[in-house]
Specification:
The protein has eleven helices and six strands. With 277 residues, it is an alpha+beta fold.
Length: 277
Amino acid sequence: MDMHTLCTDLQAEYDVLDAFLACLDEAGWNTPTPAPGWLVRDQISHLGWADRAATLAVTTPERFTTELVSQPRQERVAHQVATGRTLAGPALLAWWQTGRALMLAALRPLDPKARVPWFGPPMSALSCATARLMETWAHGQDIVDALGGHRPATARLRHIAHLGVLTRPFSYRIRGQEPPVAEIRVELRSPTGSLWTWGAPGAANCIRGPALDFCLVITQRRHPTDTTLQMTGPLAAEWMELAQAFAGPPGAGRQPGQFAPPDQEGARVECRVQERG
């Protein structure tokens, strides 16, 4: 995967979310989302802040480490929320769009293997861009759920699914547990009907199902029991209970029964966007 292609996919995720946000009045921006205490505007201020942090990490890593990494996490979160709640919806959207454009401009020319500092271990530029896509999609899901909207699944989910597979050990370590060494086979049906696979065929532990369901679980936007994923073997079921593709402390996730399976959800709001590329 090259940086240009990945950044183009990230821009496409931005475009989809823009279409939902452009429909909103101020009441819509103040709609509570499934993340406790977070309004729609809080989701966007978080994304905008993280995009700006990524730009700083790429362009001036020393400043990123000095100014942001050393700042207590609670202070960072409070600053993010305050930013979003001092701007009207259209101004907040414009602020986010400006910051993400700067980030994409910084990411595109990088060598995919270039190291970028972050709030945990440094990561490759490719992983940095993938993480931004994952977060944009995941927080976008909170917004779509809050507004009762519908967002079609795309082949871009492969980036998120791959990140989910790679972060399996991380999901254990952030909970102070040692990751199991046994391999897990993952077989996902893509939105176009093709099969995406990871792990050795015939592994005792296996996860099968739609790529959308898998991505919803590893970003903690759905509880595994509210999806159609088929989990074979104790380690597969255990992983799906712990799965976390995003950095930070263990997330609380969603409670069982909080959402119907994706294809059964009603759509009260739908905005259309023309996909790029």
